[in-house]
Request: fold
Amino acid sequence: MNWYASLVAAVAAERVVELVVARRNQRWSAARGALVTGQGHYPVMVALHTGLLVGCLTEVWLAGRPFVPVLAWPMLAVLVAAQGLRWWCISILGPRWNTRVIVVPGLPLVTGGPYRRLRHPNYVAVVAEGVALPLVHTAWITAAVFTVLDTVLLTVRIRCENRALAAVTAPPSTSPAPA
Reply:
């Protein structure tokens, strides 16, 4: 359990780094006349993602979930791949990436990197992580509850983001965002 708590703590630390990056990017966007939308669902998203981390540890501890290597190792690989995809998205979007829905009017959509194939690849990473992190230590209830709630949240979030982008973006660009 100690190593699993360390893994969950590492994911939590990664989230803190994301928030630091998002805050910096928010200042960059604001200096360029950014529009912020979707504030209503943001606290729900923060609570849900915090609940995922807490749920992982709580379920393993209270329910005595076992470590099952045949499940754990593939889920750890999915978790690592999800982190890689997330940071690829962050690097491709550059200062335009954020945990909030913030768009700068007139900038083209980014269609390079993972955005070449997927409209919202960061959310693929979120879904993969939400399943994989709990299942590394067989916290299947946490995985199931998070997945159901996250599906509802992502439906709201993606619609909000698509509306915001459609309202203010220029034609697509294949190059990364300007710095």
Q: What stands out?
A: The chain has one domain: 2-173.
